[in-house]
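For this section, I looked closely at the sequence of one protein beside the tokens encoding its backbone, which the following lines show:
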Amino acid sequence: MIEALFLLLAGAPQAAADPLAPARAGKVQCANPNVEKKTCMGLTSYKLNPDGSFETSTTLLIAPQPPITMDVKSSGKRVGDQLCAPIRKEDFEAATFKIDGTPLDAATATSIRGQILGSLAPMIGKMGCSRETPDGAVLKAEVTLDGVARPELTQRVLWVMPEDGFKLGL
């Protein structure tokens, strides 16, 4: 699940000189896709700003049954062929949670938020960057934190059009 946070990132997959080209084309990023089932562990949309920065809105599946999701917003910038964003505690403190599409009560949301923040604690305040490279029919998003490769955070991603029918799921 944490890997999908680095997304907290057209046709046949290929590494793009401009990693935001798919977002410019209206695509969203599907983390850990199951192409046959058209499911993703996370879906991220990008709002591109005139100054070259971007804002993301990510919905993550944090538990499958019943489905519990987290919506988190972040911001970042393109650095060469990478997408980079600071890992900010306040972004996760502002996250919202739903169970089967219904907002969670405050106590349950606070409990889940605490678990998320606990697992992210070693990463808070670091700059997370991802670089996409071809990996068969999808892309591989390789992650660095403050410039240090973190292969355990590598994940598969796929840029899809919203109308392609991808949804959260296993």
